[in-house]
Amino acid sequence: MSRLTLRAYASDDLEEVLKLFYDTVHSVNLKDYTPAQADAWAGPEPDREAWNASLIRNRALVALLDGKIVGFADMDATGYLDRLYVHRDFQRRGIATALCDALEARAGQSTFTTHASITARPFFESRGYRLVRAQSVRRARETLTNYVMQKGGETECAESTGR
Question: What DSSP character marks residue 29?
C-alpha cells in the first residue's frame, strides 16, 4: 500500500505542479465553472517564473504517492493559503487535509484565510473556515465566483454578494 509523504516544494517540481494545476481545474472544477472560466483560471501558458518565485517565497508543500506529485499547497507568512490542488484521480483520500494540516501547524499563526473556489468551499467549511464574503474575480474576459474564508480570529459578517 502506498504511503503519502509531504515535502517542501523544489523548483524541479514546477512542471509537474503546473500540469496538476491545469488538469485539476479543467476536470474537477468543471462541475462548478464553465470551460471558458477554467481556461481563464488555468490557461495553457502560465507564467512559470512567477509561479516558481511565489512557491519558493511562500511555504509550499507537495504531496507524493509512489514518487508522483498528487497534490500541492502553499501558504504565505500571514497565514493566507494561496493554492491547494489535488490530482483528479486522488480526490477524497485525505491529501488536501494532510497538506492543510501541515501548513497550518507550521504557520505560527492563529488565523488563516483563503479564497476558496465554489468547488473547494465545502472542504474549507468542514475544516472550520467561515465565509467572510463572496466575490467576483475577473480573469481574461471571464468572471469567476469564489469565497473569502477565514479560520480563527474574528471573522467579518458574511455578505451575500461580492465586490
Answer: G
